[in-house]
Design goal:
alpha+beta, four-stranded antiparallel β-sheet, 8 helices
């Protein structure tokens, strides 16, 4: 048996159910055991009793009672096809002894979930490259968001990178095409976010709703959130090429924030509707014509301190194909813009 453990909830786990959060860390612990620990008050959040379906928040301290070392019988390992193995290996854009980075394609989930059987975590077996264990995810991207995704190649690196994300010492820059042109052309969006349940089976279709900062403290489940944006190029008032920087790391933060100021990310029907009648005031998230209906959000760059060597590492991911086609259509220059438009100059 292990001893009592106190673990802190990381940014990328914000809003997860307690039982799902625990099973990601200790996959051998059964659902029945988790519910029993909750009933007995052994599993606690910030010292308080909790239910298995309680949502955890960033920075909360989770008390975990002694757990058995004996793992449950291992499930049959998923067989990865040669095509999938080649596909995920072709996504690698950076690799050393400690860190591996992918340019995640749009449409590929980071982790498994409801009806999701093909995802980065499951395909990571093909990313060992001679090491005995597969690399571990240290953060996530939405299924339809493309771009830089970091994985740790050993336990020590995973812990160091997780701490870096929690401490917000990593720097992430996203590129997006949005409906209309934000005014002013650069700014800080500070709006709280609260999860709204969906109307489908088991709550399918849930989304984040932006609320005024003054209402965050009085709204159950609401979290403060902040994002920076800067317009890098535009086509009249129809659409704009923007850089985005999440100051906090909430679920769907950039998508919800841009929609909240009337400029949803192109292709984001969840937050901007699928209408095309958009003259720059947030009527819809589609541009029509030859512009792809896929989400136009890309994790362009990440910068972090190397967990072993200490030097700064900057990784940049090329745009996905549908975004390249859009950029070419509007003649937006990928080279002329600043790699980090939010970086303060001396």
């Amino acid at each position: 048996m292990s001893g009592v453990q106190i673990l802190e909830v990381a940014e990328d786990a914000d809003g997860q159910r307690l039982d799902r959060w625990l099973r990601q860390i200790f996959p051998h612990v059964t659902q029945g055991r988790i519910e029993k620990m909750c009933r007995k008050g052994e599993l606690r959040i910030d010292g308080a009793r909790a239910k298995a379906n309680t949502r955890v928040g960033v920075g909360q301290a989770i008390r975990i009672p002694p757990l058995p070392e004996q793992a449950a019988p291992e499930k049959k390992r998923q067989v990865i096809s040669e095509d999938d193995a080649q596909m995920i290996q072709d996504c690698v854009i950076f690799k050393d002894d400690d860190v591996l980075a992918l340019n995640k394609p749009p449409g590929l989930p980071t982790q498994g979930g409801s009806k999701q059987t093909r995802h980065v975590d499951g395909l990571a077996e093909a990313l060992k490259f001679g090491l005995p264990t597969k690399p571990k995810l240290v953060h996530r991207l939405d299924k339809d968001t493309s771009g830089v995704l970091l994985l740790a190649r050993n336990t020590k690196t995973a812990a160091a990178l997780t701490r870096a994300f929690q401490a917000k010492t990593t720097r992430k820059i996203y590129w997006a095409a949005v409906a209309g042109v934000p005014q002013p052309r650069d700014g800080l969006i500070e709006m709280g976010l609260v999860k709204q349940s969906g109307h489908g089976p088991n709550g399918a279709g849930e989304k984040m709703v932006a609320i005024h900062p003054r209402y965050v403290s009085e709204t159950e489940g609401a979290k403060h959130a902040a994002s920076e944006y800067r317009v890098l190029d535009a086509v009249a008032q129809r659409t704009a090429f923007v850089a985005l920087q999440p100051i906090t790391g909430r679920t769907h933060q950039l998508r919800a924030h841009m929609a909240a100021i009337g400029h949803p990310i192109v292709g984001d029907g969840k937050y901007g509707t699928n209408a095309q009648e958009n003259l720059g005031d947030g009527w819809g998230a589609q541009l029509g014509g030859d512009v792809s209906r896929k989400l136009h959000l890309h994790a362009r760059m990440i910068r972090f301190a190397h967990p072993t060597m200490g030097h700064k590492v900057t990784i940049t991911a090329p745009l996905s194909r549908h975004m390249v086609e859009t950029w070419d259509l509007f003649q937006w220059d990928q080279v002329a813009v600043d790699a980090d438009p939010f970086e303060e100059t001396p």
